[in-house]
């Protein structure tokens, strides 16, 4: 066989690397081989100087790995393995620490922060110390067929506040609707408003006419037209006209409340007093609903009375009592009024995160069948705007109408009192006349005989003629033969003479 052509570019020489301390320098061929492997290139078999038609037999080409490359690879693998183990260990440690922190935090959160007594105490203190608050509520009353629904919306910030109410009553098939508002602005002025008053007065026109004179009815209608749906301003000067003492006390109270809104020491006093006399006890837990914890509440009467008594030494009470001496706390009366009954339930719902009261439910039923259901949903420390009404009627503008109504009422009362008295006197005269006839075979007494029968203490004036308007207090007694008499009196309300016959007359 002819010899295969030799590739002059391929060498079989292998240079063994030095094992001494000299620096190892690979040959150019080895360097190229190393570079080729590092770039993942396959070795190329040269085809130069091959005879035409010659095809070299396919055979595996094995590239030797140098000891240096083996040493580098081995060292790199060892370093990576140690690094991975160290990273894994750090991750595991962090995971354990995080689990402990989260688990411990949950434990503290559950055992301390969400302890029911702490939740309720926080809720009450947050309500008392809130910078602003709003309340939306509804009360339903059902008493012996009479049903009433009262709506409430209240706002407060500092010493300013407002209350809006709606009242709907249904009784004996008749519906009555009324609404009202009260507002106190930053100047300490009061504003009042009543709506649907005209319709209410019209519904009770017959009742009003039964006791009011025509002049009174006119005065009532005029006053109602000015009041209905309009704000009525009661300023500090108006209060002074009514009572200087009341005006001074009101201004002082408003200033005190504004001052204590930011007095941390005074607020802390209230908090400490309650913590020392916690009068609200948790009867049972109601679970969680809409992110709030629910609790059924009972009142500790002894603790409540002690709490109320302790308030009398606080800065807030001392200041308010100094403003108005009539401002007092009757702890016994208040505690008695809040006594729990077997028929009443009180629920408190508190946000699980902020410990703010989110809803209050109260239900009660009396022995006569009357039921009361109250629900209030408060919010705290949210922006509240209480604006002074742009237009209003002053109290002085209503003064003339009020005086006319009061004057008419006094006059009407006097008239009705006089009419009632003369009617009563006429009945007394009839009684004595009938008694005389019963004892004298049906014969009625003469005027002289009648006057002798009636005790002078009654002070009844009797005349032998028919009663007249010019003598409204005189009773007329006119005998009809001997078997009867006509008794008359003047009714000042109806301006008419009333006759009552006795016997056969």
Offer a concise description of the structure.
The chain is α+β, with helices and mostly antiparallel strands and 505 residues long. It is 43% helix and 25% strand. The longest helix is centred in the first third of the chain and has 47 residues.
Notes on the protein architecture:
- By secondary structure, this protein is α+β, with helices and mostly antiparallel strands.
- The protein has 3 domains: 1-113, no CATH class; 115-189 and 235-391, outer membrane lipoprotein receptor (LolB), chain A, CATH 2.50.20; 416-503, no CATH class.
- The chain is 43% helix and 25% strand.
- It has helices spanning 28-38, 67-113, 116-129, 197-203, 205-211, 214-227, 236-242, 244-260, 264-276, 301-311, 315-323, 331-337, 395-439, 447-453; strands at 132-143, 146-157, 160-171, 174-184, 190-195, 232-234, 280-289, 292-299, 345-351, 357-365, 371-380, 393-394, 461-463, 474-479, 484-491, 496-503.
- A 12-stranded mixed sheet has the order 7-8-9-10-11-1-2-3-4-5-6-12.
- Strand 10 and strand 11 (371-380) form a beta hairpin.
- Helix 3 (116-129) runs antiparallel to helix 9 (264-276).
Topology (elements, then pairings):
Blueprint: H1 28-38, H2 67-113, H3 116-129, E1 132-143, E2 146-157, E3 160-171, E4 174-184, E5 190-195, H4 197-203, H5 205-211, H6 214-227, E6 232-234, H7 236-242, H8 244-260, H9 264-276, E7 280-289, E8 292-299, H10 301-311, H11 315-323, H12 331-337, E9 345-351, E10 357-365, E11 371-380, E12 393-394, H13 395-439, H14 447-453, E13 461-463, E14 474-479, E15 484-491, E16 496-503
Parallel strand pairs: 6-12, 13-14
Antiparallel strand pairs: 1-2, 1-11, 2-3, 3-4, 4-5, 5-6, 7-8, 8-9, 9-10, 10-11, 14-15, 15-16
Helix pairs in contact: 3-9, 6-13, 7-8, 8-11, 10-12
């Amino acid at each position: 066989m002819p010899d295969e052509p030799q590739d002059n570019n391929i060498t079989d020489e292998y240079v063994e690397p030095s094992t001494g301390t000299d620096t190892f320098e690979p040959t150019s061929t080895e360097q190229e081989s190393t570079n080729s492997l590092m770039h993942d290139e396959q070795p190329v078999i040269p085809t130069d100087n091959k005879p035409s038609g010659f095809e070299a037999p396919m055979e595996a080409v094995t590239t030797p790995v140098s000891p240096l490359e083996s040493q580098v690879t081995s060292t790199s693998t060892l370093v990576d393995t140690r690094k991975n183990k160290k990273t894994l260990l750090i991750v595991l440690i962090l995971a354990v620490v995080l689990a402990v922190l989260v688990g411990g935090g949950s434990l503290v959160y559950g055992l301390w922060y969400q302890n029911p007594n702490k939740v309720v105490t926080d809720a009450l203190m947050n309500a008392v110390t809130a910078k602003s608050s709003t309340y939306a509520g509804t009360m339903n009353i059902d008493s012996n067929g009479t049903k009433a629904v009262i709506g409430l919306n209240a706002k407060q910030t500092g010493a300013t506040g407002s209350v809006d109410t709606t009242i709907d009553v249904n009784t004996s098939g008749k519906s009555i609707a009324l609404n009202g508002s009260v507002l106190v602005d930053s100047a300490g002025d009061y504003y009042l408003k009543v709506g649907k008053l005209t319709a209410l007065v019209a519904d009770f026109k017959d009742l009003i006419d039964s006791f009011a004179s025509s002049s009174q009815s006119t005065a009532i209608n005029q006053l109602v037209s000015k009041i209905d749906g309009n704000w009525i301003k009661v300023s500090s000067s108006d209060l002074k006209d009514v009572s200087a003492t009341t005006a001074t006390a009101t201004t002082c109270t408003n200033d005190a409340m504004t001052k204590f809104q930011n007095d941390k020491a005074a607020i802390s006093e209230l908090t400490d007093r309650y913590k020392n006399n916690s009068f609200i006890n948790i009867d049972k837990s109601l679970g969680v609903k809409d992110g709030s914890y629910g609790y059924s509440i009972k009142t500790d009467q002894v603790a409540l009375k002690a709490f109320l008594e302790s308030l009398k030494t606080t800065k807030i009470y001392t200041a308010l009592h100094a403003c108005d001496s009539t401002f007092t706390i009757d702890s016994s009366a208040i505690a008695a009024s809040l006594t729990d009954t077997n028929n009443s339930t009180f629920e408190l719902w508190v946000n699980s995160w902020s410990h703010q009261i989110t809803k209050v439910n109260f239900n009660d039923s009396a022995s006569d069948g009357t039921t009361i259901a109250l629900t209030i949903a408060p919010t705290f420390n949210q922006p509240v705007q209480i604006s002074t009404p742009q237009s209003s009627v002053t109290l002085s503008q209503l003064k003339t109408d009020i005086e006319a109504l009061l004057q008419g009422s006094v006059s009407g009362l006097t008239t009705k009192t006089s009419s009632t008295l003369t009617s009563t006197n006429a009945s007394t005269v009839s009684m004595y006349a009938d008694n005389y006839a019963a004892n004298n075979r049906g014969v009625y007494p003469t005027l002289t005989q009648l006057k002798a029968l009636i005790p002078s203490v009654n002070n009844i004036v009797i005349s032998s003629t028919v009663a007249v308007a010019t003598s409204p207090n005189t009773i007329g007694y006119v005998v009809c033969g001997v078997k009867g008499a006509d008794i008359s009196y003047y009714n000042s309300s109806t301006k008419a003479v009333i006759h009552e016959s006795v016997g056969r007359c």
